[in-house]
Fold:
Amino acid sequence: MAFDPAQRFLDMVPGGQGIFYAVQADGVLLWYRNLGWQTGSPQWANNGTGRQIGNQWHQFVTVLANSDGQIFALQADGTLRWYQYILSNAQTGAGFWHAKSGTVIGHGFNTYGRVFGGWNNVLYCLDDSGVLFWYCYLGPPGTTNWANGGSGRRIGSGWKGYPWLVADPNGVVYGVWQGSELRWYRYVVQSYSTGAGFWRNGGQAITIGQAWGSDGQKLVRANTSGTLYGISLDTAATLTLGDDDSLTWYRLLNSETIDTSGVTWANSGNGVTIGRGFTVQAEAALQGYPGVLSVVQGGTVAIQVSTTFPSYSWSVQRVAPVSGGPVIMVQPTSHSGRLQLLPSAYRSAGCGWGTDFSVSVPTTWPSGVYTALLQSSFGTSHPVMFVVRPATPVNRIAVVIPTNTYNAYNTWGGHDQYTVGQDGAPRTVTMRRPSVTTALTGGAVINCSLLSDLFLLQWMTSQGIAYDVYTDLDLDAPGITPWTASYKAVVLMSHPEYFTGAMRQNLVNFASAGGRIVYTGGNGVYEEIQYTTDRSAIVFRDANGDRRLFEDINEPSSAILGVDYFAASYMDFAPYEVLTNHAFLNGTGLGVGSTFGATAYNGAASGWEVDESPGGIPGSVVIATGQNPAGGADMTYTAGPAGGWVFAAGSLSFNGAIGNDSAIQQILRNVFTAAVA
Structure:
């Protein structure tokens, strides 16, 4: 078998009026057409069977299409190729490829985190600062003739808060805002030679739906005239059932005039299932995971890989501690590829793949964050993160990588702990699976996972601040007291939300003995989880499916960190304002009333999810507070026993501001200097 039926397609590329170009995991390109695209009828051309029209399409990282059969295919190195499938029979999919198909029409598109669109030959390109650019291919086929002299026209900013962006013809753009809102925009082009135009509704988004995004769908695609298709997630109370293979139809009846005529959905906005068997996993051509998340110096970590490529290469890079880019520890090595199928209970019990290769970790490798980088001959890649922990403590600072949070929000396989419809039962989510939260690049979307944590770790290295690295599992492990006792400070990262009871107690013991805690994130030590007996999976929620929050058992995070999660402020971003002159501000030039942290990877330093001081904690002072409209992050210092203390930034977005703000850099220098004193 050339693909796993549980993850058959890499993408379903809309081609207009119900047409899809389905990129199979083995590279086969199939043509489908939903004849009922206007009404939601489950009628399909070619008796519902995909017609094979191409091969080796798994070489591309992004595939987009226009309604006339033009296809834009982007390679990993930024090369853009042009194709056109000329349809001769709309009932069977019969047709032929334009003679110039495969022609290179552009370069450099890998400088953008995301590229979407295709309709009207328009490509929307989003960079890592959230700026949106407009491109239009003018042709004729075989040329590199682009509008605006080939330069992207800047048409907007602030788009990184949309994990999903899709386009419809004539400038319609749909964005799924972080959370669940489906929002509408429309860019009206006045000159296709330059891209000059304007946004309807003054550029302000209009919310047109709720409950969209990764908690309910595997993907969403727009397919002309307001027709949207989604691959719906199964909603069984257990994670072991269902293939997430339902293709669901929706339609906006006035998709181009929402701003003037309101929102009008067909079928009252309810989706209609029009097909089954459409399993999708974007990583299915090349993917893998480590046998263990944490390996000791001198140990070995097995890497499990499944791929549809006949061969691939692997290398090992250290991504922290580094300053100035990853360090190659093992040079690229060629390896034969093999497809490994998923067992039925893979979401809870693990993928169960065999080991493809193992990484022997020398005792000389520094403790840190590493990745086994898998790469195809086409340049497509997949990182497999693992942590090397020290055989014995070396430095005075220990960093705990929040692998529980990475797993809680890892939507690989469709489901994470937040998937809609899983109420009434605990959620056992395996850690033995590939991850989409441990990528080394941002994809032009806000981030509070590994990338965000690397902002801090790599900056620490650049400042000569040495540290040892552990995972959440290590903080839970038996015998934890000896290694924590060897450190002056423990660092908690961007989003250390999920703790076992043992993890929390070990942190309490460390603080009680005079340890210092440097907490640079938000919403920390919030929800209690458990590990399965073999420590390969996390059990979220109790027997009734209810979250086990520490605050509900009178163990709030403020008892350790000095701050508690403040749910009223979500997805707002703002700078901090200084409230109290404190030693941690020395050398910053800041005083009471000064602001800092206005620019960050996620927008501003205070935001997304924030913590606030509950007040009344002895020895606690609020140094600064975020200026978010509903209430911002409280940056606090809280004195503890035996000379210990806690510094809390109180924001998911804080680490993303380090590279942009000299005041934050100086604050952290002061914090870490004090932490090891």
Notes: The two ends are 61 Å apart (CA to CA).
